[in-house]
Every structure is written in structure tokens, then in C-alpha cells.
Design goal:
Oligomer: single chain
Shape: globular
Helix content: 10-25%
Distance between the termini: 18 Å
Order of helices and strands: EEEEEH
Protein name: DUF397 domain-containing protein
Mean pLDDT: 77
InterPro entries: DUF397
Number of helices: 1
Strand order of the largest sheet: 3-4-5
Strand content: 35-45%
Largest sheet: 3 strands, antiparallel
């Protein structure tokens, strides 16, 4: 697994959010990025679509998703 790289971007309301992406992403930065601005929520963003929507889920839902992916369930 590649190490994570951090990028800082501003979200829609201007508050700073620290985004994390895998070092396996393309040099152009095309990847899914993840941020956790609070302990209760996780944000997912497609870096190819800067004006696209950010998906917000609970931390529990994000953990369940990542666990299922790692197990090969999805």
C-alpha cells in the first residue's frame, strides 16, 4: 500500500480542509481523495472533477466501506 500524501484545499464555504490521497494516484492528481474534518464525518472527493460534489458519510459508514473493500466483498 502506498503512503498517503496530503493536499490542502478550500471547500465550498471557504473553510480549510486537509485532503489525503494515495501515492498510487496519477502524477496529475487524478484519484479519490479523503478528508476527515471531524470525528463524526468523512468526505470523499474525485479530484478529476474539481467542481463536482463531495460525498459526506459517517465515520462508521466509511470504516464499513473500507473494510468491505479490503476483504474483497465489493
Amino acid at each position: 500500500m502506498g503512503k498517503s500524501m496530503y493536499v490542502s484545499r478550500r471547500d465550498a464555504d471557504g473553510a480549510g480542509v486537509m485532503w489525503r490521497k494515495s501515492s498510487y494516484s496519477y502524477p496529475e492528481g487524478e484519484c479519490v481523495e479523503v478528508a476527515q474534518p471531524s470525528g463524526a464525518q468523512v468526505l470523499f472527493d474525485d479530484s478529476k472533477v474539481r467542481e463536482g460534489r463531495v460525498v459526506e458519510v459517517s465515520t462508521a459508514a466509511a470504516v464499513a466501506f473500507v473494510t468491505a473493500v479490503r476483504r474483497g466483498d465489493i
